[in-house]
Design a protein that fits this description.
Structural class: alpha/beta
Strand content: 15-25%
Distance between the termini: 29 Å
Helix content: 40-55%
Number of domains: 2
CATH architecture of the largest domain: 3-Layer(aba) Sandwich
CATH class of the largest domain: Alpha Beta
Number of helices: 13
Shape: globular
Radius of gyration: 21 Å
Bound molecules: pyridoxal-5'-phosphate
Length: about 400
C-alpha cells in the first residue's frame, strides 16, 4: 500500500490543509467576539453557497443561514418539527434511504403521507400532485439521494407544493456546494446541508437555510428544545448559537465555505459535473451497469455515482471486491440497507483532483479483476480521462 489514502465515500470527504489547520487554533469562548466573527464568516459563506449555486452565480433567494451543532439529520428534524405539529400533514417523498429518513422524522412530529417508489426509481409526478392537497403543511424531498445516486426533480415538486401553499423542505445534503441549487426558482422554503459532504468540511455540524416565508410559519414551541428554529434565528442575528457551539468545527466550516467562494460556484458545478461524467464513463467502459433508473426529469447524480455490482461480486461475493479496493488504500461505499451487496458508490464531492478520479476508476477495475471479474482497466481509465477534458 504505497499510495496515499484516498477517501471516495459519499461523505465524509477529504479536507484541504487550510480546513484541517483551522481546527488546531487555541480555544475561545462561544460568547466571545472572536467566535462571533467566525460564525459570521461561516454564515456569509453559506449564504453564498445556498443562494448562488447557479451556472451564472446569480442570486436565487434570501433568508438566514443557521449552523447547527449536529449533522444534517438534526436539520431535517428541525425543519419538520418547527413547521408542522401533530395535527399537520407532511407529504414525504421516498425513493431511497434519506427520503425514508425524512418520512420517519415526520412520523414522529406530524401525520405523514408518504409518496414512495422503489429505491433508485424516479417519482411519478402525477402521484406527487395527487398527494399534495390544500391540507398539506409541508412537503419533504431529498434533492440528491445519496443512497442511490439519483438527482430528484426539486423544481417540479416545488411548483406543486407552491400551488397548494405547502412549505417545501429540501435535503440538499449531497448537492449543495457541488451542484446547481435554486432556492426561489425551485420554490424551496428550507434547505438543509451537511458539513462533511459537498462543503468539504469535517463532520459534526450542518447548515439550514431558512427563507422569510418559512420563518414566518415556524413554531419553536412545538419542536424539540435543542431545535427551536425561532431561537436559533434570533441568536443567529448576533452570530451566536443558543447553546455551546462546536468552536473548532465552526472554524473549519468557515474556511471551507470561503474556499468554495474563492473557486466560485459556476466553476465548482462544472468541475463536479465533469468528474461525475468521468466516473460514469470509466465504469461504463469497465463493462459495469449504472444502478439508478433515471427517467423523465430525474437524472443521475453529479456528486455520487452508484453502480450495480456485476455477477461474480454480488451478494455474498461482494467482499472480495471491497477487500481488493481496500488493499489499494482506497475507501468507497457499498449499498445501504437492502442494497448491500448489490451496488457500490463513489463520491466526487469536495476538491478531488483529476488524478484522484482516475485512480478511483483504475482501482475499481483492478479490484474487479482481482475478484475474478474481467474488466479492461486501461479502457476504463481512458474513457474517464476523455470525459474530464
Ligand atoms: C441525502 C442525505 N441526507 C441526510 C444525511 C444526513 O446524515 P447524517 O445526519 O448522518 O450526517 C445524509 C448523510 O449521508 C445524506 O446523504
Amino acid at each position: 500500500m504505497s499510495e496515499e489514502f484516498l477517501l471516495l465515500n459519499p461523505g465524509p470527504v477529504p479536507l484541504s490543509d487550510r480546513v484541517r489547520r483551522a481546527m488546531d487554533e487555541p480555544m475561545v469562548s462561544h460568547r466571545s467576539a472572536a467566535f462571533e466573527a467566525t460564525y459570521e464568516r461561516a454564515q456569509d459563506g453559506l449564504e453564498y453557497v445556498f443562494t448562488r449555486s447557479t451556472l451564472d452565480e446569480r442570486a436565487t433567494g434570501e433568508g438566514t443561514a443557521l449552523v447547527l451543532n449536529g449533522t444534517a439529520t438534526m436539520g431535517m428534524e428541525m425543519a419538520v418539527a418547527n413547521l408542522a405539529d401533530g395535527d399537520s400533514e407532511v407529504v414525504a417523498l421516498v425513493n431511497g434511504k434519506f427520503g425514508r429518513r425524512f418520512e420517519r422524522i415526520a412520523d414522529r412530529h406530524a401525520r405523514v403521507t408518504p409518496v414512495e417508489v422503489e429505491w433508485g426509481e424516479s417519482f411519478d409526478l402525477d402521484a406527487v400532485a395527487d398527494a399534495i392537497t390544500d391540507g398539506t403543511a409541508v412537503v419533504t424531498m431529498v434533492h440528491n439521494e445519496t443512497s442511490t445516486g439519483l438527482l430528484n426533480p426539486v423544481a417540479e415538486v416545488g411548483a406543486l407544493a407552491r400551488e397548494r401553499d405547502a412549505l417545501f423542505v429540501v435535503d440538499g445534503v449531497t448537492s449543495i456546494g457541488g451542484d446547481e441549487f435554486r432556492i426561489d426558482d425551485w420554490g424551496v422554503d428550507v434547505a438543509i446541508t451537511d458539513a462533511q459532504k459537498a462543503l468539504a468540511a469535517p463532520p459534526g455540524v450542518s447548515a439550514v437555510f431558512v427563507t422569510e416565508r418559512a420563518a414566518a410559519r415556524a413554531d419553536g414551541e412545538s419542536a424539540p428544545f435543542y431545535e427551536d428554529m425561532e431561537w436559533h434565528l434570533r441568536k443567529a442575528k448576533q452570530h451566536q448559537t443558543p447553546f455551546t457551539s462546536a468552536v473548532p468545527l465552526f472554524r473549519a466550516l468557515a474556511e471551507a465555505v470561503e474556499e468554495i467562494e474563492a473557486e466560485g460556484m459556476p466553476a465548482r458545478i462544472d468541475r463536479h459535473r465533469r468528474q461525475a461524467r468521468a466516473f460514469r464513463a470509466g465504469f461504463d467502459a469497465l463493462g459495469l451497469e449504472p444502478f439508478p433508473n433515471a427517467a423523465g426529469p430525474t437524472e443521475r447524480s453529479n456528486t455520487v455515482t452508484a453502480t450495480a455490482l456485476p455477477e461474480g461480486v454480488r451478494g455474498d461475493d461482494a467482499a472480495a471486491f471491497f477487500d481488493a479496493v481496500r488493499e489499494r488504500n482506497v475507501s468507497l461505499s457499498g449499498g445501504q440497507a437492502h442494497l448491500g451487496g448489490e451496488i457500490f458508490r463513489v463520491s466526487n464531492m469536495g476538491g478531488l483532483t483529476p488524478e484522484q478520479v482516475l485512480r478511483g476508476v483504475r482501482t475499481v477495475g483492478e479490484a474487479l479483476n482481482d475478484a475474478g471479474v474481467a474488466a479492461d482497466v486501461e479502457a476504463g481509465v481512458a474513457a474517464a480521462e476523455g470525459a474530464l477534458d
